[in-house]
Protein 1
Amino acid sequence: MNTILTVVICILIALAVALYFLYRFGQKMQVRQVESQKAIETYSQKVSMLIIDKKRMKLKEAPFPPELYEKTPFYLRFTKVYVVKAKVGPRVANLMCDKRVFDEIPVKKTIQGKISGAYLTEITKGAVPTEKEIERRHKAKAKAEKKAAKEASKKK
């Protein structure tokens, strides 16, 4: 009974230490993300672009320079990234983006967006409307038609 209690206490202490280090690591990563987000915002510029293609592929297979792969942390090297091939001005560029932006991008259309280096951060004009927006528009249209019909019946 005494040995079981000792083993349980040792396991609990080990779990507490592991949780503490995970918490500290999470805080450190959160600070890094905030700093990098500020840098992205300061260097972003608004451009008009024609979207040629969009894909999701591994970072190593993506058409980016090898320096980008080498600078990427080890734990992110094997993840898949969202890649957009777009004609920005006179040249064709491969851009990386988030899932949120990737879902909004229409293919074979011209859009306006914010670019920071090789990273597409935001779509400002020309995005594909989401299902919620489409549903909201249908409801507003139906409400306006109902109101117009009601006013037309009052005039008669």
Note: The first helix runs from residue 2 to 42.
Protein 2
Amino acid sequence: MSMGASGIRVESLPLRTQGRVPRRICEDRGELAVLHPVGPVYNPVYFDLHPGEDRSRGGHYHKSKTEFCYVISGSCSVEYLDLNTGEQGFVEAHHGDRITIGPRCAHRMQAVKFCQCLEFSADDVDYAEDTVSYVF
């Protein structure tokens, strides 16, 4: 997957009812999010983040896996370092956003406001072999 200028991208899923694309459907009865409409999904994980200085998650990168993270509620800040380009910085993600983190992009997330997320990948990799710790 091409990530453009850096190994991380945040996109607000569009509000629409049809199409084979990631999207959100918001109705009176509630919200439905189509996160990955085509192909397999591996290692789906739910996690939440509480605000606080020492409460981050991540602190690693993946050798070959592209990771997706959907923000169910709240907001978070993602610190990143693209090991391929040297680009580093922070991005913010909010309810309804999907974060895409490419291979060799070190990352860690911290809540701006209590945050609930769903993480998954379209790559079938051995997590233990593909994950490398990284200290920011």
Note: The longest strand covers residues 105-121.
Protein 3
Amino acid sequence: MTAADDRAKAFRPPWQAADIAQQAVAAGAIDPTGQVRAACLALPEVTERLSHGAPTWFVRGKSAFVTLWAQGHHDDDFPHLCCAGLPGAQQELIASAPGRFFRPPYVGGRGWIGVRLDHDVDWAEIAELCQDAYRAVAPARLVALLKS
């Protein structure tokens, strides 16, 4: 086999790569809940409980800032995360990578960001998005704890 044959064999069109990633999440090979849980529970005064049947993380048990739809939700039939957005972040992210970010139903009008988890996921980026979501919702005193 030549190097070109190896590259051709390794190449998957984006729609096939997405199917493989979605199957891996569905089969439990990738645990998005554990990844998101670790990122969110590392933040001050965060709790987790189900909301509308999905794992959701709250500041002080009241204000939701991240919801994980590991099996999809409504017309968004793919694993994704919905998180609160800082002002202007939703438009900026969707414009920069419309295949990864989207405006989720119901909460999108309030600036929340939908993040697809059925492609190659950068978990460090997801952790940053969770921190930004926390900053968008948490009181200033708790946000200040992140800086120290």
Note: The first strand starts at residue 46 and ends at 51.
Protein 4
Amino acid sequence: MKNIFTYSLIVIFLFIVIFLGLVFFNEKNRNDDNFSNLVSMENASEQILLGSSLYLENCASCHGNKLQGQPKWNIEKDSDGHNYAPPLNGTGHTWHHNQEYLFNIIRYGFKKMDPNYKGKMMGNEDLTDDEIWSILAYVKSIWPDSIKDKYESTNKN
């Protein structure tokens, strides 16, 4: 009887040790994930901040300081017969395009897609890839949540 009691205590002790080990392991992984998410959020914030600065420097003269675009962008042409710059704040059509398309427009303008293009969006080949991705991160950070959700659902990578 004494052996059964001792054996039972050993089994209960092992279950407790295994249970506590699993709890500790799970908590450690959860904390690691939280740290990763925090680092990821910090990196995203830095990217958006850089994108904001680059946007103001390279894009705002046409698309506006608040990404509002030019008035009548979708109904009239300018005095040269070109389209006005569209809004990039989610009220225009920017979010209808995938990331690679938007990247290429920033990099090369429309000239690469249409050799006869005579508009004003000529692109900026002086920006690095990371700078262009930062501008796009900034632009997307301004969009309303409903537009972000639609964009993410149609542009899953």
Note: Residues 2-58 form the longest helix (57 residues).
